[in-house]
Each structure stands twice: as C-alpha cells, then as structure tokens.
Amino acid sequence: MMRGNLLWTLFLVFVPLSLLSFGGGASIIAPLDHQAVAVHHWITQHEFVDMFAISRAAPGPGSMLVVLIGWRVAQWPGALIGAVGIFLPSSLLCYGVARMWNHYRGTAFHAALERGLAPVGTGLIIAGAWSILRASESGYSGWAIALLATAVLAWRNFHPLLVLFIGGTGYVVLVGILR
Fold first, then answer.
1. Which helix (H) or strand (E) element contains residue 55?
2. 131 shares its domain with 145
3. Domain count, the chain
4. What distance in Å separates the CA atoms of residue 62 and residue 122, rounded to the nearest whole number?
5. Which range of residues forms the domain containing residue 150?
6. What does pLDDT average to over the chain?
7. Is pTM beyond 0.70 here?
C-alpha cells in the first residue's frame, strides 16, 4: 500500500471514531481495537493492549492511543494524522454543540438530550472495558479484580490510582499464588 493511501486510511478510520467518542476516549476502545487489529491488521492484539496501557499511564487524554497506533503504522506522519483525525472533528463538534447546548439550557429538549446520551456513553465505555479485558487474557482473576475495582469505585470515592495500584498488586500476588 502506498504511504499516502495508508495515511488517508488512518484518517478515515479515526475521524468517525472521534465523532463516536461520547464519554471520552474510553468509549472508542472496542471499535478502535477492531479496526486496528482485526480489520486493517496494523498491530497485533498484544501490541494494542501494550499501547492501551502506555496511553493510560501517560499524562494526557486516553485517546492518545490513536497517536501511538498512528506512530506504529507510519511514524511521525501517522502520529500527526492520528492526532488530527481523533481530536479535530470531535473538538469542532463539541464547539458547535456547546453553543447550541447553552442556547437551549433549561428547556425540556436540553434535559431529554442529557438523559438520553448518558446510557450511550456508558454503553460505549463498557464495550471498551470488555474489549481490553478480553484482549488482556488475564483469565478469571483479571475479570474478578476488574469487577471488584469497579464496585469499589462505584461504592466509595477512592482515588482511581489507589484502586489501580491495589488491583494490580492483588493480581500479581494472586497469579503468583495460583501458578
């Protein structure tokens, strides 16, 4: 494939995902995984999980995963296309929606839209979490710890890094005991 076509393909994959990202970058993990691994074969499932972990550990938005995929596919031009493709369309959409949102604030339309979009964002985030857990091959231990961490965060207001640290440490200890 010619480099120009590859960059165009990257852009055409990332733009719709940008517009789909209700709830933030976590909401596009499942379709991004599908496109990058299964459809275009740009990266392996293992590379996707590694890049996901790096994007979550690094400061900045979680959708930086797209920039890492772009880098892997086409170095600097791919990273730039990834960043523009994932951030520009949603930023322009957010600007337009924010103007309209403020115009209709306090109306029945505003309240209905707010209530209607909450489950959409939640569903997309759950699909992304499901995709990452499935790809990580962490087994029942990983699933149990992820569910426990979710329950803890829903139940109490703990700092997410503390829950992540305890969950990661618990997984390492549990897997060490079971082996």
1. helix 45-57
2. no
3. 2
4. 16
5. 138-179
6. 86
7. no
